[in-house]
Design brief:
Helix content is about 65%, strand content about 15%. With about 475 residues, the protein is of the alpha+beta class. It has a six-stranded antiparallel β-sheet, with no helix packed on it. Strand 2 (about 160-170) and strand 3 (about 175-185) form a beta hairpin. Helix 2 packs antiparallel against helix 4 (about 95-135).
């Protein structure tokens, strides 16, 4: 490894780590803010919260790692050109394309890492996160209470056997109407509480439930004393139910994986399975069609020798049944083909996002050299512009491919192909570097964009 190569790698390492940390932190906080309501107020242990945060991180990394490569290339080459480092290298006989080779090799290595990450780590994390979110959402018992139904209230110690019934439950105010509580915790004593109204209040940890009952009575039968009966009235009574939401049941078996929760091998197996189902349906349809033709031929021969009324009716019934079966088969085949499209899109997307690491090197290096005086403003402007177009094309292509409008291959690889060709043109078009640090300010970027927009706008005006 030469001194120039080591210097270029070290120069890019710091900006890359900073951009990766900053972008990952911002997007991660935004993702957590959208899901924080699923964590707050459920009395979750720190281990569950930590697991939730860790499983939410891979999805953010899949977005920010290619983005960080572009930011690092733009910033580093812009600073090196402004400091006349690339001019000195050019004077020493080192071409700009030679300067781009070390970052390009690093981009290829990062593409391999990204492909492994998208294929193995990200699908598993998405699957575990989905199961965890489902478990967390089912933790609070208030979601299980139903109106006009006897609801069993399970406490932490599992010793109390309590059932609750209410004619109406207001989810916003936790207000109950016509409450009945059956306490069967003691086998020798049956206690039933009736109240005209009630309120549910949880403690701060959302683990203990306090029922405040109004205007009611308590009926108690002591079976151990030959059926002794007691009745008492109350205006207000508080019934504590401790440990209601302290336990969270984790699913022992994972749920069915979606396309974004599968590795490439799983997706290929799913495609093969769906293709086999389509072939079976097509073979069944062909067999039904051949059977129908033979039956109709027999009925026609009967019509020529008999009255034919029954034969005509039988033919109409066969045709109707075959038409209905054919329509159902077509719907099944369409659903299977749609699933195959989704699986194919996910496979191509894993490769496309990994290849974006190489594409962003080809884009970021020449632009950083071309605009040395742009500074942080140029880095932010170009990065947002490239990211916006790239991710818009990727998401839009995914939606079109899922609907079967365009093939999955072109849907996922069109943004890469466009930016790759643009990057190659920018790399081959690198001119002399001696005077590159005299221009390339942020105002030049705006002027270049205005010139590009001026031509189509002028054509529209002339046509009007």
């Amino acid at each position: 490894m030469t001194i120039i190569t080591k210097h270029l790698i070290k120069a890019h390492l710091g900006p890359f780590l900073f951009a990766f940390s900053a972008l990952t932190g911002l997007l991660f906080l935004n993702a957590i803010a959208q899901r924080i309501e699923n964590l707050v107020g459920k009395g979750l242990p720190w281990s569950i919260i930590g697991e939730f945060l860790i499983l939410s991180l891979p999805h953010t990394i899949a977005l920010t790692l290619p983005m960080s490569i572009l930011v690092a290339l733009l910033y580093t080459f812009s600073e090196m050109t402004a400091a006349n480092e690339l001019t000195a290298m050019s004077a020493g006989g080192i071409s700009p394309i030679r300067v781009l080779m070390p970052p390009l090799l690093l981009g290829i290595a990062m593409a391999g890492v990204m492909l492994f990450f998208n294929d193995q780590i990200l699908p598993s994390a998405n699957h575990q996160l989905k199961d965890l979110v489902v478990d967390i959402s089912e933790k609070s018992p208030t979601f299980e209470l139903q109106e006009r139904v006897i609801n069993r209230i399970q406490t932490q110690d599992r010793t109390r056997n309590i059932y609750l019934q209410a004619s109406s439950i207001d989810r916003d105010t936790n207000h109950l109407e016509e409450v009945v509580i059956y306490d069967l915790s003691d086998p020798g004593i049956h206690r039933t509480t009736y109240a005209s109204q009630g309120e549910m209040i949880f403690d701060q940890e959302q683990t203990d439930l306090y029922l405040t009952l109004y205007s009611g009575e308590v009926l108690q039968v002591d079976l151990s004393r030959s059926g002794e009966f007691n009745r008492s009235e109350f205006k207000k009574q508080i019934v504590p139910l401790r440990g209601i939401a302290n336990q969270m049941d984790r699913q022992k078996t994972g749920s069915v994986r979606s396309d974004r929760e599968m590795s490439i091998s799983m997706l290929e197996e799913a495609i093969e399975e769906k293709t086999t189902e389509i072939r079976a349906i097509q073979d069944e349809s062909l067999e039904r069609a051949q059977t129908a033709v033979s039956e109709i031929t027999k009925d026609l021969s009967k019509i020529t020798t008999t009255a034919g009324i029954d034969g005509v009716l039988r033919i109409d019934q066969n045709v109707a049944v075959d038409a209905l079966t054919t329509h159902q088969n077509q719907l099944q085949v369409a659903a299977l083909e749609s699933a195959i499209n989704r699986y194919s899109v996910e496979i191509y997307k894993k490769y496309a996002i990994a290849f974006a690491c190489i594409v962003f090197v080809l884009i970021g290096g020449p632009l950083g050299i071309r605009f040395p005086r742009g500074g942080i403003g140029m880095v932010i402007l170009v990065s947002v512009f490239v990211f916006g177009i790239y991710w818009t094309g990727l998401i839009g292509g995914e939606n079109l491919a899922d609907r079967g409008i365009i093939p999955p291959l072109w849907a996922m690889w069109t943004p890469n192909i466009v930016f790759f060709c643009l990057g190659v043109l920018l790399t081959l078009g690198l001119g002399r570097l001696e005077n590159s640090n005299r221009g390339g300010g942020l105002d030049e970027i705006f002027s270049m964009v205005s010139r590009l927009l001026r031509k189509p706008l002028g054509r529209l005006r002339t046509t009007d």
